[in-house]
């Protein structure tokens, strides 16, 4: 039964309230994910295939919405889909030592630190090229010339 379904007397059956299932739009709203993103997570195998209502529409319960939220938050932290799969596997395994999750988080943080260092180097190069452009209204542009250059790196 989907949220909002009623029986012939106009009331929602008690059994439906226990495992209340909601359509994909409601699950998207509650989890902060877009509908297409939820479908993508299903196709990518990060999220199990949704159950279907009698009319064939995808329906989700509270556990599904919590899992979608977990995936969204992990992705916001930059975890790849494979890393999210591993985190979910660990989350689904009761009694798993936190050290495994910590190890994944430490490795991910090191990747982020390396990316930050790369971004800082790129910023320094751009600062130099931008400063060369500030020389005035000279013909040509040092930044454009550097990008077309076939010698060395920028």
Protein architecture, described:
By secondary structure, the chain is mostly helical. 60% of the residues lie in helices and 5% in strands. The chain contains 7 helices and 3 strands. It has helices spanning 14-18, 24-31, 35-44, 62-76, 81-92, 98-133, 142-148; strands spanning 22-23, 51-52, 58-60. Strands 1-3-2 form a 3-stranded antiparallel β-sheet. Helix 2 (24-31) packs across helix 4 (62-76).
Tally of individual helices = 7
Q: Give the strand order of the largest sheet, numbering strands 1, 2, ... along the chain.
A: 1-3-2
- Which structural class do the helices and strands define? mainly alpha
- Strand % is under 5%
Largest sheet: 3 strands, antiparallel
Radius of gyration (Å): 25 Å
Chain-averaged pLDDT: 84
Based on DSSP secondary structure assignment, what is the total number of beta strands? 3
- Low-confidence segments, ≥5 residues, pLDDT <50? 1-18
Fraction of residues in helix: 55-70%
SSE string: HEHHEEHHHH
- State the oligomer: single chain
* Overall outline: elongated
> End-to-end span in angstroms?
61 Å
Name its key features:
mainly alpha, 3-stranded antiparallel β-sheet, 5% strand
Please outline the helices and strands.
Blueprint: H1 14-18, E1 22-23, H2 24-31, H3 35-44, E2 51-52, E3 58-60, H4 62-76, H5 81-92, H6 98-133, H7 142-148
Antiparallel strand pairs: 1-3, 2-3
Helix pairs in contact: 2-4
What is the gist of this entry?
60% of the residues lie in helices and 5% in strands. It contains seven helices and three strands, in the order αβααββαααα.
């Amino acid at each position: 039964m989907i949220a909002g379904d009623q029986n012939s007397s106009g009331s929602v059956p008690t059994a439906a309230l226990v495992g209340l299932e909601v359509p994909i739009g409601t699950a998207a709203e509650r989890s902060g994910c877009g509908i297409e993103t939820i479908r993508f997570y299903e196709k990518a195998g990060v999220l199990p295939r949704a159950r279907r209502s009698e009319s064939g529409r995808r329906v989700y319960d509270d556990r599904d919405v919590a899992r979608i939220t977990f995936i969204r938050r992990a992705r916001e932290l930059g975890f790849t889909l494979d890393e999210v799969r591993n985190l979910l596997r660990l989350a689904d395994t009761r009694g798993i030592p936190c050290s495994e999750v910590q190890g994944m988080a430490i490795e991910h943080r090191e990747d982020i630190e390396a990316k930050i260092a790369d971004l800082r180097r790129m910023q320094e190069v751009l600062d130099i090229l931008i400063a060369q452009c500030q020389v005035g209204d000279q013909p040509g542009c040092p930044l454009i010339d550097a990008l077309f250059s076939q010698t060395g790196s920028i």
